[in-house]
Specification:
The chain is mainly α. 46% of the residues lie in helices and 11% in strands. It has helices at residues 8-16, 27-44, 66-78, 84-89, 95-105, 130-146, 152-163, 167-170, 177-185, 191-205; strands spanning 48-51, 54-57, 82-83, 109-116, 120-127. The chain starts with 7 loop residues before the first helix and ends in a 42-residue tail after the last helix. Residues 211-247 have low confidence and may be disordered.
Length: 247
């Protein structure tokens, strides 16, 4: 995989970064979303494929992206397809920080040192080129506005943005309700993105231990019409900033 194209985990994190404060929206669910975004990116690269509600490695060859290849190797070591909800709900210590550091190395963000309460050291991250974030956002806006089925990458990004609750960050307030609804609807345009997004929501709902009704039908989330109402609400964590060591 060449580095001329941003990966879905990178784009999801850039969407979540507040350009004014350097903090990340929905930090807890974002960690789940990044794990899910890795699965989508590996699927687009032809390394894994959905098998009902499970993920199977179909080509263990490295992609050239160290972070994705680490996930691919862990999946390969499982030896058999793993349920997406179990993979996403597993420990992912440091994944958000790994991607923030990666974006810094790539020159897409820069770290700003600071202090919390005048004592605790913190690191916030500011986008170095806001045009990149605007381009990512414009793709979502265009898909929402036109109703034209988006490309698989944009559809998967929209599904994950909805699953982790970024709709409230991207399209806030009452005026953003219709856009949040249409963002949710984009989930149907990419089967892998839909499978992963529903797995992310399952983990947040605490139902990872229960097999999904309709698994193996090829319809991610079959039998879960209750999700039509949107992302389950989570208690907001104060000061959800993208800072070193914040987990």
């Amino acid at each position: 995989m060449g580095r001329s194209r941003r990966t879905i985990p990178e784009e999801l994190l850039l969407l979540a970064l507040d350009p004014a404060t350097g903090t990340t929206a929905q930090p807890q669910s974002l960690d789940l979303g990044l794990a899910g975004a890795q699965l989508v990116e590996l699927a687009l690269a032809g390394r894994i494929a959905p098998d009902g509600d499970r993920i199977a490695v179909v080509l263990p060859r490295p992609t050239g992206d160290p972070t994705l290849d680490s996930a691919l190797e862990l999946l390969r070591r499982r030896g058999s397809p793993v349920r997406a909800v179990h993979w996403i709900g597993g420990p992912r210590l440091g994944l958000r920080q790994t991607y923030l550091t990666h974006l810094e190395r790539c020159g897409m963000v820069h770290a700003v040192a600071g202090q919390m309460c005048g004592v605790l050291p913190t690191t916030r991250y500011q986008a170095t080129d806001t045009a990149i974030s605007r381009e990512i956002r414009a793709r979502l806006d265009n898909a929402i506005r036109t109703g034209v089925p988006p490309d698989p990458r944009t559809a998967a990004l929209a599904a994950l943005a909805h699953a982790v609750g970024l709709g409230k960050h991207l399209y806030p307030g009452n005026e953003g309700r219709s856009s949040r609804s249409r963002l949710r609807d984009l989930i149907r345009h990419d089967p892998m993105g839909g499978l992963v997004a529903h797995a992310v929501m399952d983990v947040q709902n605490g139902v990872a231990a229960s097999p999904r009704r309709g698994a193996g039908t090829g319809r991610p989330g079959a039998g879960r019409a209750e999700r039509a109402s949107g992302v389950p609400q989570q208690p907001a964590r104060r000061g959800g900033m993208a800072r070193v060591g914040a987990r």
